[in-house]
Specification:
Elements (H helix, E strand, L loop, with lengths): L5 H7 L1 H34 L2 H7 L4 H28 L8 H23 L8 H16 L3
Length: 146
């Protein structure tokens, strides 16, 4: 029995073609709000010099960044589980749902690296979240094939 190629599967299943185009947009819109809020919070903290005050009291960089990582990981886990439950209703019936959850969660964790990079670009908190969300939006849209 011959294994069908990917092109043959997509011709047989138009639903998979639609999901392959919509899923990146779903992930994009799901993570815009965390990008906006966390970048703006980090830049506000940088602007108020709270991090320097913590350094003067003896805190090193590791617990500072670990606190942001744990905060974002908890937020990402909640968002990923909610998105996974929505997708489990009727969307991902043919694939292993645990792989989909892992994919969404790992994508969210990779967004944290982008957040860290983008917060380093700003020194004023006024428009930092908005500009970071626009940068994230255009960077993701540039990678989605038309």
């Amino acid at each position: 029995m011959a294994v069908p190629e990917e092109a043959d599967i997509q011709q047989l299943d138009p639903f998979s073609q639609m999901v392959s185009g919509v899923l990146p947009l779903f992930l994009l819109f799901m993570y815009i709000l965390p990008v906006f809020t966390i970048v703006s919070l980090m830049v506000k903290e940088k602007e108020s010099k709270a991090r320097e005050s913590m350094r003067m009291m003896g805190m090193t960089d590791f617990p500072y960044w670990l606190s942001w990582f744990v905060y974002y990981t908890a937020l990402n886990t909640i968002l990923s589980v909610i998105a996974w439950l929505v997708l489990c209703i009727n969307v991902i019936g043919a694939s292993n749902p645990w792989y989909v959850l892992l994919f969404i969660w790992l994508y969210g964790q990779s967004v944290f690296g982008e957040i860290i990079f983008m917060q380093s670009l700003f020194s004023r908190a006024k428009f930092s979240g908005l500009v970071a969300a626009v940068i994230y939006f255009t960077a993701v849209l540039a990678n989605i094939p038309v």
